[in-house]
Write a sequence for this structure.
């Protein structure tokens, strides 16, 4: 896997993946940014949410669950030192659908956490405490 990050101006950077997708990154005004795009640390948090969500939806679809929506709310804490790495990340899944079986939703969230989500597993190995929970909403 390859990617490129190019300085644009100020503290803004353009990232481009090998697959041709681009994203802007910026930083807080406190360190010279304009907050016009997600910061690199926000991108890491979003990556954890995206990676886990892909797993949960994939597992639920394979279990033939009628999922209408899936949202994961993430909350992270960072250490009060430099580097200000994440110390904790909590993922709260809200899965909406018809006749969803709790055992399937629970299993999907656990499998993502324990086996499939490369982003969260990598951060967990680096010492970040990562927790998950879920709620089911029927339509």
């Amino acid at each position: 896997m390859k990617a490129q990050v190019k300085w644009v101006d100020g503290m803004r950077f353009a990232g481009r993946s090998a697959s041709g997708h681009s994203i802007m990154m910026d930083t807080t005004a406190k360190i010279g940014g304009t907050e016009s795009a997600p910061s690199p640390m926000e991108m890491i948090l979003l990556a954890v949410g995206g990676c886990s969500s892909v797993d949960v939806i994939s597992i639920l679809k394979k279990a033939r669950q009628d999922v209408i929506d899936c949202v994961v709310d993430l909350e992270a804490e960072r250490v009060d030192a430099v580097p200000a790495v994440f110390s904790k990340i909590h993922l709260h899944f809200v899965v909406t659908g018809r006749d969803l079986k709790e055992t399937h939703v629970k299993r999907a969230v656990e499998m993502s956490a324990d086996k499939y989500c490369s982003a969260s597993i990598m951060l967990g190995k680096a010492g970040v405490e990562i927790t998950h929970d879920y709620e089911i909403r029927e339509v």
Remarks:
- Residues 40-62 form the longest helix (23 residues).
- Residues 1-37 form a domain with the N-terminal domain of TfIIb fold (CATH 2.20.25.10).
